[in-house]
Amino acid sequence: MGDVQRIFYFHVASAFAALIGWVGCALASIAYLVLAGRRGQEALANIIDRVAYGLAEIGVLFGVIVLVTGPLWAKPVWNTYWNWEPRLVLMMLTQFLFIGYLILRGYAKRDAGGKKLAAGIAIIGGPAVYLIHVAVDLWGGNHPSVINGEGIRTPLMQAAFASAVGAVLIFAGYLVYLRSKHHKLVDDLEEGYLELADREDQR
Amino acid sequence: MIGSAYYVRVLRLTTLLLALTVSGSALAEEPPEPRPEKPTSFGGAAPEAPLPEVKPGDFEGLLRNCDIERSRAVSAKKLAELNTTNVPFLTAAYLALWAILLAFFVIVSQRQKRLHAEMVVLRERLARLGDDAP
Which of A36, A190, B32, B73 is deepest in the core (most CB within 10 A)? Predict the structure, then answer.
């Protein structure tokens, strides 16, 4: 394979970040749907919803990195940029699913109905992520089963892989935190406009 | 509230973390010894078995060993050629990674600036209404 194997370190690390982001979004969406219907839990539900939104955004960001760097690795190794193996197709479909989630959630803003619909879409994404993980074992494909089977054996490569995964996951976690704060600001702004409308009505 | 300073900090952190990732991957070399026992999907090659012993006068054995050595030399040459042809893909992948992250930060920071400006205007309007309130 030669030097092109170095793509592997951030390609796989980004895939981990994307999949964790999407699973996190699906779990947070379940929590949101549970809490949104309970009295006195609205504030907590909104926080969870913002975190889910941030997780989906970062999942999509790293999903794009995976889908761009993957073909650049595949061309010299598999002699093709893309093949329609189950893992690749599922990854692409899940990416589109979460892009759909982001569009819907973006339009919903503070509307509870829209938020719940978006949460429903995110929940569908959870099992899709599991299928991406087991796709090679279930249906085969060019991707190797690195985690369950045999993959990196050289200690230096294992250390580089661990540091790459750790660095990307810390970075992704920080981005989720920042995006959640950003969505809080958007909500505050919406609330401010409502207050402004109220005050203008009072005058 | 998030200011643009946050994004400067994020950019610094990104640079640091990705530099760590990139340098980690750059350092990760496959050492010549020991080789994996069988071929793997990540460039590991089968171990090179020692050449069979040749008794004095066994010219056929000597020729077989020559063939083995030649095929190993061909493999080494192929790997060197492979690296020459594959490096552009590696470069493209690194460039794509940085381009995607940069585009993300530019888009997000622009949105952030717009939000802050909107928030300042809203606060002013609210304060003005609050002062005028009966």
Answer: A36
Q: Does B132 touch chain A (CB under 8 A)?
A: yes
Examine residue B24 and state whether it is found in any structural domain, yes or no.
Answer: no
pLDDT one-digit tens code per residue, A86-136: 888 889 999 999 999 999 999 988 788 899 999 999 999 888 888 888 877
| Domain hosting residue B80, numbered range | 36-132
Q: What is the domain range of residue A17? A: 10-202
Q: Is residue A3 assigned to a domain?
A: no
Question: Would you call B43 and A5 a contact, using CB atoms and an 8 Å cutoff?
Answer: yes
Domain count, chain A: 1
Domain assignment of residue B12, yes or no: no
Q: How many CB pairs under 8 A join A and B?
A: 163
Is B16 a domain residue?
Answer: no
- Best of B1, B8, B18, B20 to substitute, by most chain A Cβ atoms within 10 angstroms, is B20
Point out the residue among A1, A14, A171 whose CB comes nearest to the CB of B43: A1
Structurally, how many domains does chain B consist of? 1
ipTM: 0.85
Q: Is the pTM of this model over 0.95?
A: no
Q: Has residue B110 been placed in a domain?
A: yes
